[in-house]
């Protein structure tokens, strides 16, 4: 559909996504599995981090071995559901910096309204990976990416769990330079902006709240 969308079609991810889609999956299990999927998706999102050889001694020999060059990472969670992915990403890269962007969807217009914004300094020197489980209309992700670019982010990616074609298209139109990494591209949005078949409201599933 677009050059900028990568669907990570790994059996473990697809298996775990099925658990997440199942409405019978209880909150604690949902949270745990989302955290695991975040680690797997995070491997794809970070696959081009630069490496440089360093010299180390194994118990047997001295070798040149690849080591992360120290490109700084910043994960940005789009509140509140993004936090469900953030936990797994921080398991993967505990030293990463973290930003938070609070956006909520106006239920009538589906527009993204910003209510919180806090990011680390020097975003321009970091690989910034913003996360939100659902790419639905794209309005929230578009607004968040615009804000992050205004704060200096130059190398930006968006990692989600489930994307709708409408959201991917809208996001790609405004931010063609931002790769999107997702576990699935679903069929469509419904009239309320929910992804079909989707997994429901990700925030409610993570935190056990209701609509
Ligand atoms: N946000 C969600 O949590 N779920 C959807 O299906 C769409 C947007």
UniProtKB/TrEMBL annotation:
Binding site for 5-phospho-alpha-D-ribose 1-diphosphate: 80, 105, 132-140, 201
Cofactor binding note of this UniProt entry: Binds 1 Mg(2+) ion per subunit. The magnesium is bound as Mg-PRPP.
Involved pathway(s): Pyrimidine metabolism; UMP biosynthesis via salvage pathway; UMP from uracil: step 1/1
Reactions that this protein is recorded to catalyse: UMP + diphosphate = 5-phospho-alpha-D-ribose 1-diphosphate + uracil
EC number(s) per entry: 2.4.2.9
Keywords assigned by UniProt, alphabetized: Allosteric enzyme, Glycosyltransferase, GTP-binding, Magnesium, Nucleotide-binding, Transferase
Regulation: Allosterically activated by GTP.
Cofactor: Mg(2+)
Phosphoribosyltransferase domain boundaries: 8-209
Positions that bind uracil: 195, 200-202
Enzyme class: transferase
GO molecular function: uracil phosphoribosyltransferase activity
NCBIfam families, sorted: PRK00129.1, upp
Summary of the function given for this chain in its UniProt record: Catalyzes the conversion of uracil and 5-phospho-alpha-D-ribose 1-diphosphate (PRPP) to UMP and diphosphate.
Family: Belongs to the UPRTase family.
HAMAP family for this protein: Upp_B
Protein name: Uracil phosphoribosyltransferase
Source species: Hyphococcus lacteus
Name of the coding gene: upp
């Amino acid at each position: 559909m677009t050059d900028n969308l990568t669907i990570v079609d790994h059996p473990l991810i697809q298996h775990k996504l099925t658990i997440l889609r199942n409405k019978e999956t209880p909150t604690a299990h949902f949270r745990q599995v989302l955290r695991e999927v975040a680690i797997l998706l995070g491997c794809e999102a970070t696959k081009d981090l630069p490496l440089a050889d360093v010299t180390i001694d194994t118990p047997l020999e001295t070798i040149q071995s690849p080591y992360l060059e120290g490109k700084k990472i910043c994960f940005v969670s789009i509140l509140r559901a993004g936090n469900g992915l953030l936990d797994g990403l921080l398991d993967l890269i505990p030293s990463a910096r973290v930003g938070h962007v609070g956006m909520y969807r106006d239920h009538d217009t589906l527009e993204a309204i910003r209510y919180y914004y806090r990011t680390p300094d020097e975003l321009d020197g970091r690989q910034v990976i913003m996360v939100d489980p659902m790419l639905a209309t794209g309005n929230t992700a578009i607004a968040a990416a615009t804000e992050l670019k205004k704060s200096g982010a130059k190398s930006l990616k968006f990692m989600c769990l489930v994307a709708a074609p409408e959201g991917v298209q809208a996001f790609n139109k405004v931010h063609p330079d931002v790769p999107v990494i997702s576990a699935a591209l679903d069929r469509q949005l419904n009239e309320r902006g929910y992804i079909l078949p989707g997994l429901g409201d990700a925030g409610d599933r993570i935190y056990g709240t209701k609509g």
